[in-house]
């Protein structure tokens, strides 16, 4: 089966066919950098990362664009989120932007998310946004009122086609900003005049002001991917009004379809309740990464289909930790075995058919709308076979180990991003391996006090030693910090 994706625009699964075979243009709505990223952001961007990784794994060249919103994302009150953050911390808006953009990138790196190819910032593309607004006015889709410019929703007959909402159903009080100066409450801001105390402001044909939130994405997507491109990704809460407004203004400018496939990730709740600072249940990724290894957080986020909701709780993360350990333990044991010379111990084991079957089934799962839980199930089935082989044979031959290692590296590593980073594993190997060797020497001379002390103290740090036919192996407790 070729890749099938669920397209929010058509509300069905469709065969994925990029505009140019082998080349994919993908735009994802990035964060508004006014505070630390939370675990909901983690779920969204891990979901988008899996899509990019799999498209590349299947041979596509992907141009992945993810913007940074550093101006213009307005609250319901009309206040800019960046300015709100600056007031909160009594500092300059650009200090807020730099601080939390770096924090966001650190969190994404920790979660093993690949860096986007281009990360345009809204403040760096104000000329493109002004040009887009001018074009919309010229085409009769926008109007200016005392220094602010609004998109005329009535000029877009297909407005609502992504969310399913119709103009008649929209009411004042939605997130679409309402001011009496607008012709209709459904109209949305393309450019806002800056009040005297507004710090972030630019000169424009309509006076000093700043761009609206929606025009930013349209201008940056068009600049780097063109008027019509393959994939637009984001969260379910982006569908309305943000993505809906993007479509309306972009298609009004170009007369072409905006994005061909719209892929949206499901929401994340905390113990069944939507995250909210007012409820005190908002958890930053920085805090979560102090409690759990990044691979465990990533495993948790992939345990539910990217379009489905997922609930964050201590119990769910504990289960994710156990699942991740079961998945990677044999992969790491195979890596360790390959670091030792085969010598005369190598036993020929034929797992070629199982390896080929696992790879084929994994691809079939991912071809079904990037079904990561299904792909994980395939890897768990394969892991059972690897565990059986390792238990029955002291040292399988290098050929078999290399085939197994290649499958884990390609599927669990390159596609799912779940294997520990090489630098982290190498450090643990050296430290724990040294202690395991010292313990083995102590056991050989029957110094059981020393061997038991090493074992018990390692256990307190989250490392469990296991003695088996092939020698002493170890595993890292998923509840231990990755720092």
Explain this structure.
By secondary structure, the protein is of the alpha/beta class. It folds into two domains: 19-265, HUPs (Rossmann fold), CATH 3.40.50.620; 344-476, no CATH class. It has 14 helices and 15 strands. The strands form five sheets. It has a four-stranded parallel β-sheet with strand order 4-3-9-10, sandwiched between helices. A four-stranded antiparallel β-sheet has the order 5-6-7-8. Strands 12-11-13 form a three-stranded mixed β-sheet. α9 (314-338) runs antiparallel to α12 (398-415). The longest helix has 25 residues, at 314-338. The chain is elongated. The two termini are 41 Å apart. 43% of the residues are buried.
The strands making up the biggest β-sheet line up spatially as 4-3-9-10
> In the residues, how many domains can be counted?
2
The largest β sheet comes out as: 4 strands, parallel
Write the CATH fold name of the largest domain. Answer: Rossmann fold
CATH architecture of the largest domain: 3-Layer(aba) Sandwich
N to C succession of SSEs? EEEHEHHHEEEEHEHEEEHHEHHHHHHEE
Taken from the alpha-carbon principal axes, the silhouette is elongated
The CATH class of the largest domain is identified as Alpha Beta
Q: Determine Rg (CA atoms, Å).
A: 26 Å
State the helical fraction. Answer: 40-55%
Mean pLDDT: 89
Q: Give me the count of strands.
A: 15
* The named CATH superfamily of the largest domain: HUPs
Which residues sit in consecutive blocks of at least 5 with pLDDT less than 50?
Answer: 172-178
Strand content is: 5-15%
